[in-house]
Specification:
With 201 residues, the protein is α/β, with parallel strands linked by helices. It has one domain: Vaccinia Virus protein VP39 (Rossmann fold, 3-Layer(aba) Sandwich). Helices cover 31% and strands 24% of the residues. The protein is built from seven helices and ten strands. The strands form three sheets. A six-stranded parallel sheet has the order 3-2-1-8-9-10, covered by helices on one side. Helix 3 links the parallel strand 2 and strand 3.
Length: 201
C-alpha cells in the first residue's frame, strides 16, 4: 500500500492481474469482495482454489450467479464490520445507465446518491476466515468501504490470515478520503501489516 492513491496505466493493470492470479495460485483460499458481474472472479476460479465471491447489488448479482464451479461460493451480500441491513447507494445517473460498478455503502462517495438506493444484507467475513485453513489472497473493490474494513481487520487480526490483499482505493471519491488513506497507511506500517495490502486498480 502506498501513502497516496495513484492511477494505473493499462500495462500496470495487466501486471496487477497477473500478480493477483499468481498469488491466488500459491494461496489456500481466495476472496473476491465487490465481485460485480464476475469478470475477475472467472480468473480466480481458474486457479483451482476455493473462491468466496461477494456482491451486494441486486442488478449485478444475477450475472455473478451465472458462474458455476465446484470451487466457487457466492454471497449476495456486502462485506462490512457487522451483519445487518445496510443502504447501498447507486450511481447518480442510475436511471439512464444502470451502472452498478460504483454502488457503495459510503453515502459521501461523490458519484452516488440516495435516489435509487437499495437495502442489502451485510456480512462480517471474520467467521468464514476463522474456519479456513492456511493463508489466503483477496481482491477487494468495495467503493470506499475499504478504509473501515481494513482498519477493522487490522484490529481483529483478520488481516494476518492473508498473504496479499489487492485493494482498489477510493480516497479521492469519499469525504476525508486522503486523510483516511494516510492514517490507514501509517497504522499498517506501524503494525508491520503494510506489505499485506497491495494497490489494485
Amino acid at each position: 500500500m502506498r501513502p497516496s492513491v495513484r492511477k494505473f496505466s493499462e500495462i500496470e493493470k495487466e501486471e496487477s492481474l497477473k500478480s493477483l492470479i499468481s498469488a491466488a495460485i500459491n494461496s489456500d483460499f481466495v476472496f473476491d469482495l465487490g465481485a460485480n458481474i464476475g469478470k475477475i472472479t472467472k480468473h480466480l476460479i481458474g486457479t483451482g482454489k476455493d473462491v468466496f465471491a461477494f456482491e451486494p447489488d441486486p442488478a449485478a448479482f444475477p450475472h455473478l450467479q451465472k458462474l458455476t464451479a465446484p470451487n466457487l461460493k457466492i454471497f449476495h451480500s456486502a462485506v462490512w464490520v457487522n451483519e445487518k441491513k445496510q443502504t447501498l447507494f447507486r450511481h447518480k445517473d442510475w436511471e439512464k445507465s444502470h451502472s452498478h460498478t460504483s454502488s457503495s455503502l459510503i453515502s459521501s462517495k461523490v458519484n452516488v446518491d440516495s435516489r435509487n438506493a437499495v437495502e442489502v444484507n451485510s456480512i462480517d467475513i471474520s467467521g468464514i476466515v476463522s474456519n479456513l485453513r492456511g493463508i489466503g489472497v483477496m481482491k477487494m473493490d468495495v467503493e470506499g468501504a475499504e478504509y473501515a474494513l481494513l482498519n477493522y481487520w487490522s484490529d481483529s487480526k483478520v488481516l494476518n490470515r492473508f498473504e496479499s490483499i489487492f485493494c482498489e482505493f477510493h480516497a479521492k471519491k469519499i469525504r476525508f478520503g486522503r486523510v483516511k488513506h494516510l492514517l490507514l497507511y501509517l497504522k499498517l506500517v506501524v503494525r508491520g501489516q503494510n506489505k499485506i495490502v497491495r494497490d489494485w486498480y
